[in-house]
Amino acid sequence: MAIVNELFGSNVFSDHIMKQRLPKETYKALQKTINEGANLDISVANVVANAMKDWAIEKGATHFTHWFQPMTGITAEKHDSFITPTNDGRILMEFSGGELVRGEPDASSFPSGGIRATFEARGYTVWDPTSAAFVKSKTLYIPTAFCSYTGEALDAKTPLLRSMEAISKQAVRILRLFGNASATSVRTTVGPEQEYFLIDKAMYEQRKDLVYTGRTLFGNKPPKGQELEDQYFASIKTRVAAFMNELNEELWKLGVLAKTEHNEVAPAQHELAPIFTTTNIAVDHNHLTMELMQRIAKKYDMICLIHEKPFEGINGSGKHNNWSIATNTGSNLLDPGKTPFENAQFLLFLAAVIKAVDEYQDLLRISVATAANDHRLGANEAPPAIVSVFLGDELSAIVDALVSGSAYDAKSKTMMQIGVDVLPQFPKDTTDRNRTSPFAFTGNKFEFRMVGSSMSIAEANTVLNTAVAEILREFADTLEKASDFKTALQQLVKDTLSAHKRIIFNGNGYDDAWVAEAEKRGLLNLKTTPDALPYLLKEKNVKLFETHGVYSHTEIHSRYDISLENYCKILNIEALTMAEMAKTSILPAVASYAKELAESAYAKKAILDKADITYESDCVAKLSALTTALWKSTTALESALQKAETLGDITEKSMSYKNGVIPAMDTVRAAADALELITAKKAWPFPTYGDMLFSV
Ligand code: ADP
Ligand code: MG
Fold first, then answer.
1. Which is the closest atom of ligand 1 to the Cα of 429?
2. Is the pLDDT of residue 94 over 60?
3. What is the pLDDT of residue 418?
4. What is the DSSP letter of 231?
5. Atom number in ligand 1 closest to CA 432
6. Are 252 and 100 in contact (CB under 8 A)?
7. What is the overall mean pLDDT for the chain?
8. How far apart are CA 161 and CA 33, in angstroms?
9. Is the CB of 635 under 6 A from ligand 1?
10. Which residues pair with 269 in a beta bridge?
11. Domain GS beta-grasp, which positions (predicted)?
12. Do residues 566 and 653 lie in contact, with contact meaning Cβ atoms separated by under 8 Å?
């Protein structure tokens, strides 16, 4: 392996490469576009495209693709080669500025939630020059946004970029009030920690449920699970280590800052954390990370499961979204700082985040709502479906003192006067201990822990950015009018924290007592996707997105439909898979096993009059009762499914899946799982949890 610093970014058309390969004027013009969003002249685009193509060809590329993020949760690409025929029967390798800037994928089969039906059939992709192009599998990848012809966003990137602009605009207004004249923009930064499982490929292939749905629909917890906690941070097994090495190398080549890796809590579970970067780049990099994990695992005869809940009863996988705000001059606005001045600014941004999370708790919940993540949230291993903010004891004491106007330090009787007093230093490691909080302050950033492992992090960050932008807008409106900034600031922070204190919770989020307490506080507990989604259409939420130009009215409605359609489709596939596995593999396998037992009893009797056949007869009786239960519950599942599928209205349909299909699936599973426990291992038609979880 080449040394890491040579390897790093070697397949990226990075700033460094651009500086080397672009004429000075072109480079400057492009930087203006990247940093300030200035329009890019086509003549400049032509020069950039040509340099990109020459560089990509040197890296072995023959094709280019506009890489985009339709509302399927994953990325899409269509490859075109660089070849252009000449009159004399040869070819040239060409790539124009037009091709770089804009593409037209055949978009007709990507979800649009009705946008294309009412407007225009086609969509187009537009280059996102802030996320660097790269070469992968002989192809030049150009990160792009995907829109309809009338300009509606058909993807996850467009609203994210709009939300980044919104928060930048409002945060700069606040910075000006604090006398900061140098920062001209603000970007949000994200470091997503990615959890995943690795299992043996041969095992995976024998499980139709994993192949079709990404999770197991049947199976009992093995006798040994995670109770010994011997997997967490344990030394990494050889095959897994080889996989991780190759993954790191490939990620580094693509400029992804893969930093830490370790075993997670559950057997076969692992985590990869990158160093944080600008949010839209972090989103792109996280997509690359998930894709490479899945591809590279196969080379080692393993399968990487990114599903939120591959195994019932075993910890699921999430994606901790570490989020902060930084100025273009390099200061982190969620760092408390050391001077009264820095502290005052920090407290204002902190108050803004707290208020944003409280007022838009429904949107944050919605941003992580999928059929898969419903299995995880609130299952005593992941944050509950209730959104709350963890601040830690030190910061909470400050908040209490500000709200009550009393001393925050009992001993020295210090009163907190914003802009005058210095905050105590918060020891970083004490702030990160509460792993049960969905939204935790961890010293100089917030960690949003509800995001599911397989989801794009775009939506969660779009909501977060927009909600905070809105509160900053309100703050700026108030403070810009104030005659005395310091007094107004003190009052604003105090009022905001008093009004939104209910969202702060430092206790154990896995505790049932919290559910009751949260209800008393009036916090939402939106347990499932169909419970959560209707909140998206609430007037305050539509207004939020429209005010900041993040989603139009049409776009919100389309997203509502797409989310619920996706929920129903996932459950439909799961239910069909379940019925198929029950009818065509479990029931026949158990029937022949019961026959074998019965024959064994007969055979015993034949040679021994008084043979004891208690085991055989008891077992056959149980098998046959459970077989009947499985058969009947499968039939019931099929009717529940049919009933849900006949409903035309997507809201009703999703409710019918939640209230009809899911309980029917649970009944099928209960019968099948009971059968697994009394059926001979050799007769069971697919690998068990124990086989899979301890397979690599
Ligand atoms: P740990 O969670 O193990 O304590 P850290 O808190 O240092 O580790 O980092 C966890 C993740 O948070 C990493 O991906 C890291 O890059 C990211 N992170 C650190 N600082 C920031 C920041 N200012 N903005 C966004 N993410 C950050
Ligand atoms: Mg962390």
1. 4
2. yes
3. 78
4. S
5. 4
6. no
7. 92
8. 14
9. no
10. 197
11. 62-151
12. no
User: Ligand 2 center to residue 447 CA distance, Å?
Assistant: 7
Give 197-212 as a 3 state SS string: EEEEHHHHHCCHHHHH
Distance 276 CA to ligand 1 centre (A): 6
Output the CA 267–ligand 2 centroid distance in Å.
20
Residue 380: pLDDT over 90: no
Ligand 1 atom with least separation from CA of 273: 14
Residues facing 191 on adjacent strands? 322
Expressed in angstroms and rounded, the spacing between residue 157 Cα and the centre of ligand 1 is 22
Judging by beta carbons within 10 Å of its beta carbon (0-12, 13-18, 19+), is residue 119 exposed, middle or buried?
middle
What phi and psi values does residue 381 have, to the nearest 5 degrees? -155, -20
Residue 156 CB neighbours (<10 A): 28
Confidence of residue 118 (pLDDT cuts 50, 70, 90): very low
Strands 389-390 and 319-327 come out as unpaired
Over pLDDT 90: what percentage of the chain? 79
Does pTM surpass 0.80? yes
Q: Which ligand 1 atom lies nearest to the CA of residue 257?
A: 16
Q: Which amino acid, residue 649?
A: D
Closest CA to 476 of 492, 464, 490, 498: 492
pLDDT in tens, 456-502: 999 999 999 999 999 999 999 999 999 999 999 999 999 999 999 99
* Residue labelled with tokens 């057997």: 267
CA 575-455-530 angle, to 5 degrees, is 50
Q: What is the pLDDT of residue 119?
A: 47
Ligand nearest to the CA of 193: 1
Type of residue found at 312: E
Confidence tier at 195 by pLDDT (50, 70, 90)? very high
Taking the C-alpha atoms of residue 657 and residue 320, their distance in angstroms, rounded to an integer, is 29
Of the CA atoms within 13 Å of residue 88, those in its CB half-sphere come to 1
- A 10 A CB-CB count for 32 gives 14
Q: Which of 503, 476, 506 is nearest to 488 (CA)?
A: 476
**pLDDT digits 0-9 by tens, 668-682:** 999 999 999 999 999
- Which run of H or E residues covers position 302? strand 302-305
Q: Could you give the CA distance from residue 565 to residue 551 in angstroms, rounded to a whole number? A: 19
Average pLDDT of the residues in 185-206: 97
Residue 233's pLDDT is 58
> What tokens does 471 get?
């509160």
| Closest residue by Cα to residue 522 from 361, 689, 642, 331 | 361
Tens digits of residue pLDDT in 409-446: 655 556 567 777 777 766 555 555 667 899 999 999 99
Tokens 């927009």 -> residue: 466
CB 339 within 8 A of CB 418: no
CA of 449 to the centre of ligand 2 (A): 9
Burial profile 68-84: b = 16 or more Cβ within 10 angstroms, e = fewer = bbbbebebbbeeeebee
- Radius of gyration from C-alpha coordinates of the chain: 28
The helix (H) or strand (E) run that includes residue 258 is strand 258-263
Pocket lining: 188 vs ligand 1, CB cutoff 6 Å: no
| DSSP classification of residue 148 | E
pLDDT, tens digit, 9 for 90 and up, residues 291-333: 999 999 999 999 999 999 999 999 999 999 999 999 999 999 9
Cα(325) to centroid of ligand 1, in Å? Answer: 13
Ligand lying nearest the CA atom of residue 281: 1
Give pLDDT tens digits for 325-362. 999 999 999 999 888 888 999 999 999 999 999 999 99
**339-344 contacts: CB < 8 A, separation 24 or more?**
339/422, 340/418, 340/419, 340/420, 340/421, 340/422, 341/178, 341/419, 343/418, 343/419, 343/421, 343/422, 343/423, 344/178, 344/418, 344/419, 344/489
